[in-house]
Design a protein that fits this description.
single chain, mainly alpha, 4 helices, MFS, transmembrane transporter activity, transport
Length: 124
């Protein structure tokens, strides 16, 4: 005879596995984004004809936005719930990453990297 809660616990176990996978992917992607901009800077500069100042802002915009918003993101997580803020942060980070792939100019790259830094702070 099946236990009445066996279907619910199987669903719960699958959900926990998906949540764990999402958190692990974020835990890998976010630290890579700190240095990923620096690694890609020469190629981005060549493709978009960026000068040295604009190329430096690829990394600086992310770090400045991330560092500035980290404490505020923690306060928002306390107020609105850590799961909600994490989900918004991961969603925003993913959206900004996709938008960066189609950025038409160095200014767009710099602004999108800043927005990506804000989202990364919320996800962390």
């Amino acid at each position: 005879m099946d236990h009445p809660f066996s279907a619910a616990s199987a669903t719960s176990a699958r959900r926990r596995a998906w949540v764990l996978a999402a958190v692990c992917m974020a835990a890998v992607a976010l630290p890579l984004s700190f240095s990923g901009g620096a690694v890609a800077t020469p190629a981005i500069g060549r493709d978009l004809h960026g000068g040295p100042v604009a190329m430096n802002w690829i990394t600086n915009a992310f770090m400045l936005a991330f560092g500035s918003f980290l404490m505020a993101a923690g306060a928002l997580a306390d107020q609105f719930g850590r799961k909600r803020v994490f989900a918004i942060g991961v969603g925003g980070f993913t959206l900004m990453s996709v938008a960066l792939a189609f950025a038409p100019s160095m200014l767009a790259v710099d602004l999108l990297r800043a927005a990506q830094g804000l989202a990364a702070a919320a996800a962390l």
